[in-house]
Structures are given as structure tokens and as C-alpha cells.
UniProtKB/TrEMBL annotation:
Keywords: Phosphopantetheine, Phosphoprotein. PROSITE patterns: CARRIER (PS50075), PHOSPHOPANTETHEINE (PS00012). This is Acyl carrier protein. Residues 1-81 form the Carrier domain. It holds the Pfam family PP-binding. The keyword Cell inner membrane does not apply. Gene3D superfamilies: ACP-like (1.10.1200.10). InterPro entries: ACP-like_sf (IPR036736), PP-bd_ACP (IPR009081), Ppantetheine_attach_site (IPR006162). It comes from the Bacteria.
């Protein structure tokens, strides 16, 4: 399974939708995700990929993982994976 597929699977489970219903342009708002859901997604991503991802749910615009769209989230996680690669 690709990193993108794993990320989409985690997000789909959190918002109780099928992966096929997700679009890369989806935002937390269009998916009905609040800050607590974003933190739960973050923890699931960290556990699944064995990474430590920077994110502050109180100030998501302050940097770290970009949850603005699914495309941005995927790109950010993939960038952290590339940095962590030996």
C-alpha cells in the first residue's frame, strides 16, 4: 500500500467515509473534521508511519503538518517520510 493510500485510509476511517468518497481538494471542514479529529489523525499517522509529526491543533496555521487539504496533508507526510529515510 502506498503512503498516499495509507493516509487516505486513516482519514476515511476518522471521518467515517469510504476512501473512494475522498477528494484531494477536501478540507477538514468539508469532511466534518474538528481539531480533535485532526489530532486523532495525526496520532494515527505517527503510529502507522513511525514518525513524529509537528502539529498544534490550536494554531494549525503556525507550521508543521499542513491539514488545509488532503493533498497538502499527503505532501507533508511524504516530505517527512523522505527526511526520515536513511
Amino acid at each position: 500500500m502506498t503512503a498516499e493510500a495509507r493516509i487516505l485510509s486513516i482519514v476515511a476511517a476518522q471521518c467515517r467515509r469510504s476512501v473512494t468518497e475522498l477528494r484531494l481538494s477536501d478540507t477538514p471542514e468539508t469532511l466534518g473534521l474538528d481539531s480533535m479529529a485532526l489530532v486523532e489523525i495525526l496520532f494515527a499517522l505517527e503510529e502507522d508511519f513511525g514518525l513524529s509529526l509537528p502539529f498544534n491543533a490550536n494554531t494549525p496555521e503556525a507550521g508543521g503538518v499542513d491539514f488545509s487539504t488532503l493533498a497538502a496533508l499527503i505532501s507533508g507526510v511524504e516530505a517527512h517520510l523522505a527526511e526520515a529515510a536513511p
